Amino acid sequence: MIVDLRSDTVTVPTKKMLESMMDSKVGDDVYGEDPTVNLLQAKVASMFGKDVGMFFPSGTMANQTAIKLHTNPGEQIICDKYSHIYNYEGGGASFNSGVSFNLIDGDRGMFNSKQAADSINPKDFYHSPLSSLIAVENTTNKGGGACWDINELKKIQKVAKLNELGMHLDGARIWNAMVYKEHNPLDIGGVFDTISVCLSKGLGCPIGSVLIGDNEIMSNALRIRKILGGGMRQAGYLASAGIFALDNNINRLSEDHQRAHEIGEVLAKSKYVKSVEKIETNIVIFELNKEINETSFIDKLNSLNIKLISMGSNKLRLVTHINYTNIHHDYFLSSIKSL
Ligand SMILES: *Cc1c(COP(=O)(O)O)cnc(C)c1O
Predict the structure, then answer these.
(1) What is the pTM for the complete model shown?
(2) 54, 78, 145, 215: which has the highest count of C-beta atoms within 10 A?
(3) Which are the contacts of 139, defined by CB distance < 8 A and separation ≥ 6?
(4) Which domains are delineated in the chain?
């Protein structure tokens, strides 16, 4: 048995998901003729109250497209210092859109409306880059799966409106936030101009993200996706997995959250662990005691067929997911206890 807790992206499709994929009606999506892709796009858009959705091979490409839609070269994005778009997209924002970042020193990847307002460069001060987009991540990845307060998001939206800035949500794990906070997706949709969501993380699909927004902002999205090489053909086989996951795999995320909490409790008692960061959803970040070598700790777990990843500075991360079942959970907890 291998317990792979490196990410919720390591999941493989269940038999039922595979069956629904095999049954898909497909067509050439570059001609807009794949009925299953069209269905998925409309389903995600209407869930959040937006006009249109667009299917993407990855969350990175969906975010990069959104950044391009909201900005011109030379402009600036306001986001938290932990953001995926800043840390983990290979410098794509500067490569693809020629923009820079104004990073907020937030709390677990989240910031408040005052911090957002203070980060905006005055429009008439032409020495500074023009601020054009506020980007939010929910749940936060590097922030340990933390969930935003919807009221703070609404305040940030007011700041953005007042200053004519766009609002983008990197919602790779928005499903986890929706389940944990019991958010209505329409409320979330109301706050942002564009939202990217991942199907290939907690929802257990092999591939796929969707970018949604209203007609006006999305009018150039097809062209940008084409330029980035994201036009796919009979992608309905993949979109079908997304439709299955939206219908079946959202509510069960609470199981992943429960197991993450249980892991946190056991880790907090371990003599190897200095501290466990606050756990809300399916991500657990913990820091090893100073005298424990991170690499040898990971190697030790590897020898027990347990995989997790380093976040640097003696911090480790693990993520629970649909393929991490009770058998894995029991084995993992007893392994940690017996170290
Ligand atoms: C995983 C992730 C993405 C997109 O990742 P891909 O691997 O490109 O699909 C974007 N944002 C966050 C916060 C993520 O965790």
Answers:
(1) 0.97
(2) 145
(3) 145, 146, 147, 173, 174, 176, 177, 180, 280, 281, 283
(4) 3-9+251-338 (3.90.1150.10), 15-248 (3.40.640.10)
